[in-house]
């Protein structure tokens, strides 16, 4: 029966509070993994002896390869989850990512590093795909906005784990470890986090529910085709566009805010890179994350108060205003810019939460995994374009240009949402877990 509530979320039929808490722990670790590799990888490249001049290109190529694999895999993984169940796929993703992290600092060559990164990418695609799908299964439609808001809040908390992991190598070295051993020990700790999440998921996530039975009888190809055809629905199509832009927003901020601040601190304030990181980047990150923590809850509540289709243009409109206003920033270290970065955090997570709530509402439970997979594909394309295209804009036009371009793209999604939101109807699927 429905009606059970936790944190303002009304649970779907067959879902208990234990199921939801287990899911939230998996979300915390999955989101931590998303940022940990970018934080820890530079140390691995150093101990491997990769020249400084080659590290940037290698880092970019590895990240691009992972996004391409996401584009290829996410739809397929979603379809598989419709057939075999979310729980199995989530556990597979967590354990595979853990394995990749354990192996990563043992690489003796670039080819070996690439191989381990592929393992991480496969695990991450399964893990992150289920992260956005399971919350759609576990909440009734009545509180779908709040459910995605709380999930966004916990995912943001997961962003605080990578800085703790990045402090471990120095502590291991202080205890007598070599630099290589310190990196391996740190990645082992990170791997154990994923193992712990897999254990909690095995014990705590909901078993496969009856709603998946019909999908289990279909072929994966049939599920994929039906999932792709779902984009004919105006709400799902809008959510795909919002996924593209919201993930692109996150990528632009993650890739270029720090680069801009460090370069500005070195060129205009005579700072060393470490000084710029400590005095300029960390306060900026804190401003963005603080905004995201608050914005996730506010947008979750708003998405339940107004229609989910209306929430998308509200979020993308806010993001458009914030990102395009970066055009007027010449000095990113000015005090007022921190308030703008706070609003950026609110806008980013609002676009993330509203798009997830909309696709979760519109997706047919029988093919929800595949539809969420294609939703993830749209996001991966956004990240790929933001990082590769944004890098060219940053170098050739100016440091504010990636933000301004994605602000304009947010405006496109906002206008699209305004044009179609009244014609999007809630399909009112049964409130039963799809896993």
Summarize the structure.
It is built from 16 helices and two strands. By secondary structure, the protein is mostly helical.
Question: Would you write up a description of this structure?
Answer:
The protein is mainly α and 435 residues long. The chain has helices spanning 17-48, 52-84, 86-103, 110-138, 144-158, 161-166, 168-174, 179-204, 213-216, 220-229, 234-268, 273-305, 308-325, 335-362, 368-396, 401-420; strands spanning 5-6, 9-10. The protein folds into two domains: 13-205, Up-down Bundle (Growth Hormone, Chain: A); 232-422, Up-down Bundle (Growth Hormone, Chain: A), CATH 1.20.1250.20. The protein has 16 helices and two strands. Strands 1-2 form a two-stranded antiparallel sheet. The protein is globular. It starts with a strand and ends in a 15-residue tail after the last helix.
Helix and strand arrangement:
Layout: E1 5-6, E2 9-10, H1 17-48, H2 52-84, H3 86-103, H4 110-138, H5 144-158, H6 161-166, H7 168-174, H8 179-204, H9 213-216, H10 220-229, H11 234-268, H12 273-305, H13 308-325, H14 335-362, H15 368-396, H16 401-420
Antiparallel strand pairs: 1-2
């Amino acid at each position: 029966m429905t009606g059970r509530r936790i944190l303002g979320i009304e649970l779907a039929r067959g879902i208990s509070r234990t199921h939801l808490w287990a899911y939230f722990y998996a979300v915390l670790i999955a989101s931590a993994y998303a940022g940990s590799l970018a934080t820890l990888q530079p140390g691995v490249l150093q101990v491997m002896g990769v020249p400084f001049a080659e590290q940037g290109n290698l880092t970019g190529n590895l990240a691009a390869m992972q996004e391409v694999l996401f584009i290829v895999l996410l739809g397929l993984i979603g379809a598989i989850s419709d057939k075999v169940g979310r729980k199995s796929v989530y556990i597979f993703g967590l354990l595979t990512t853990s394995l990749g992290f354990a192996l990563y600092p043992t690489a003796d060559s670039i080819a070996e590093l690439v191989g381990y990164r592929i393992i991480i990418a496969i695990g991450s695609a399964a893990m992150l795909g289920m992260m956005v799908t399971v919350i759609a299964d576990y909440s009734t439609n009545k509180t779908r906005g709040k459910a995605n808001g709380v999930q966004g809040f916990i995912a943001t908390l997961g962003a605080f784990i990578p800085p703790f992991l990045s402090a471990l190598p120095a502590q291991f070295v202080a205890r007598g470890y070599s630099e290589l051993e310190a990196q391996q020990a740190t990645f082992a700790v990170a791997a154990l986090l994923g193992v712990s999440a897999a254990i909690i998921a095995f014990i705590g996530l909901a078993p496969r529910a009856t709603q998946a039975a019909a999908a289990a009888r279909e072929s994966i190809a049939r599920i994929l085709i039906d999932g792709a055809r779902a984009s004919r629905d105006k709400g799902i199509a809008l959510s795909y566009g919002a996924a593209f832009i919201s993930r692109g927003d996150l990528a632009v901020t993650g890739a270029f805010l720090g680069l801009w601040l460090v370069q500005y601190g070195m060129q205009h304030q005579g700072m060393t890179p470490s000084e710029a990181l400590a005095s300029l980047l960390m306060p900026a990150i804190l401003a963005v994350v603080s905004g995201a923590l608050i914005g996730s809850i506010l947008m979750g509540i708003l998405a339940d108060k107004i229609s989910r289709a209306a929430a998308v243009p509200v979020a993308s409109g806010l993001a458009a205003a914030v990102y395009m206003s970066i055009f007027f920033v010449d000095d990113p270290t000015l005090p007022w810019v921190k308030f703008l970065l706070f609003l950026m955090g609110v806008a980013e997570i609002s676009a993330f939460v509203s798009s997830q709530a909309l696709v979760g509402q519109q997706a047919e439970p029988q093919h929800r995994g595949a539809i969420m997979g294609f939703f993830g594909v749209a996001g991966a394309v956004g990240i790929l374009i933001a990082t590769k295209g944004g890098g060219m804009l940053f170098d050739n036009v100016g440091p504010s240009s990636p933000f301004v371009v994605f602000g304009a793209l947010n405006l496109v999604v906002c206008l699209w949402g305004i044009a179609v939101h009244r014609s999007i109807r809630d399909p009112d699927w049964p409130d039963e877990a799809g896993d």
